[in-house]
Amino acid sequence: MLRDALLVAGKDLRIEARSRVALNQVAPFGVLVLVLFAFALDPDRGVLVRASAGLFWVAVLFSALLAVQRSQAVESGDGARDALRLSGLDPAGIFLGKAAAVAAQLLVLEVLLGFGVVILYNVDVAGLGTLVVTALVATVGLAAAGTLYGVLAAGLRVRETLLPLLLLPVTAPVLIAATRASEAALTGVTLDVATGDWIGLLGVFAVVYVAFGVVAFGPLMEEA
Question: Which among 66, 59, 11, 8 is positioned nearest to 36, based on CA atoms?
């Protein structure tokens, strides 16, 4: 399973490296979201700084939608999805590989958006370690859930509009927990609930969706 996951992840990352869709489209989109928020809240810099964690994760979530759609789109042409299904690869390995490729792209994007938040919103990072742990755990959950719902919507004509409707409500806990965990690291505020508890919630979400994806991805891929 792990060998198949590495094969699929390597394939997806090589495709992205050659096409540069993530670099030329997804990353500029995420930065543009941050810039628009900066324009909207610029008259009140205090509000902008206090909301920086939430705005960062909203930008990440929107960008994740594009990354997941792209991950499924590379299998839609020339019967690639059927070839992948008939390749003999373990469906659980395919799921882990595609989720790992999406997670790798999101982590690079989050680094870029993190610099954008510091520059555009004039935020002083108070807890870099907390931010890194939060980003790692939240990204695993987003990538796993996105890959799972991505293959669910892949076989439908309205997949471009259906995927956000399916994925955004499901990832609301990630948005809330990641925002709250990042607030303390970015703004130094004291939270009612400890940062570790929010990170623990992100970990539970990630474990549940990785486990569910390992079990359910094969049947969902057959139906797509």
Answer: 59
